[in-house]
UniProtKB/TrEMBL annotation:
Protein name (record): Calcium dodecin
Phylogenetic classification of the source organism: Bacteria, Pseudomonadati, Pseudomonadota, Betaproteobacteria, Nitrosomonadales
Matching InterPro entries: Dodecin, Dodecin-like, Dodecin-like_sf
Gene3D superfamilies found in the cross-reference section: Flavin-binding protein dodecin (3.30.1660.10)
Length: 70
């Protein structure tokens, strides 16, 4: 069996609609520039407020992908 190494990065996705869409935005953006994405883990959720109302949902996401040296 061959060994593999994975790199983990942390991203923050945003959405004016929901935390789910915020997390999806982070993963979709990562997929545009990274190959072989493996796991996405939501590690924190928060909201930006203005005048006591939710303006933006934010999802902090850890994404892992296979590390290729070279």
């Amino acid at each position: 069996m061959s060994e593999s190494v994975y790199k983990v990065i942390e991203l923050v996705g945003t959405s004016s609609e929901s935390w789910e869409k915020a997390a999806a935005a982070a993963v979709e953006r990562a997929a545009q520039t990274l190959r072989d994405l493996r796991i996405a883990e939501v590690v924190e959720l928060d909201m930006q407020l203005e005048d006591g109302k939710i303006v933006t949902y934010r999802a902090k996401v850890k994404v892992s992908f296979k590390y290729e040296e070279g």
